[in-house]
Fold this sequence. Notes:
Helix content is about 45%, strand content about 10%.
Amino acid sequence: MSAPTILTVCTGNVCRSPLLERMLQRDVDGAHGPGRVAVRSAGTGALVGAPMDERSAEILVGLGGDPTGFVARRLTAELVSDAALVLAATPTHRSQVVQLDPRALRRTFTAQEFAGLVAAVPEEDLPTWEEPATALAELCTAARAARGAATRPAGEGLVDPYRQPDAVYDRLRAQVVELRPLLARGLAR
C-alpha cells in the first residue's frame, strides 16, 4: 500500500504550496520516518515545469528545508481524490479543490483554518500515528469537530508573494512560521 498523501494547493505552485509541501514533508518525516506520509503540491494555475520561486526557496532553506528538484504541476481531480488531506493557501483555492472533487470537502481546509482547528483539538483527541492513513482521517474528523471550539481566526489565507516586494515574502514567512507548530501538533507528533 502506498503512503497516504497530504496535498498543498496554491495558484502557481511556485511559492506558497511548495513551501508548505517541503516544510511539512520535513516535519512529517522527522516525526514518523521517511516514506510513511507523502506531501505533494499543485497549483490551480500552475506554472507547469517551473522550479520553486527563488525567494520562497530562500525562505524554505532558512526554515531548514530543501527546494532541490521541485517542479510545479497543475492541480487535477486525480491529485485531489488521492489526497487524505488537502491544505489550500486561501479559501478560493479550497473552493477550487472541492469543485474538482466534491467528495474532498470533508478533508479540505485552508492551511490557516486547519492549523487553528488542530490547535483547538484536545490532546487526548489527537490521533496516534501507528497507521498514517487512519491518523490523517481521524485528524480531519477531529478538526471538523473542533469548528465550534476554535479560537484562532481562519484568516484570509497565505499571502501570494509572486512578483511582489520583499515585504510580502516577509509576511508569507511570518505566516508559515506561525502555522508550523500548529500543523505539527497534529501532523508531526
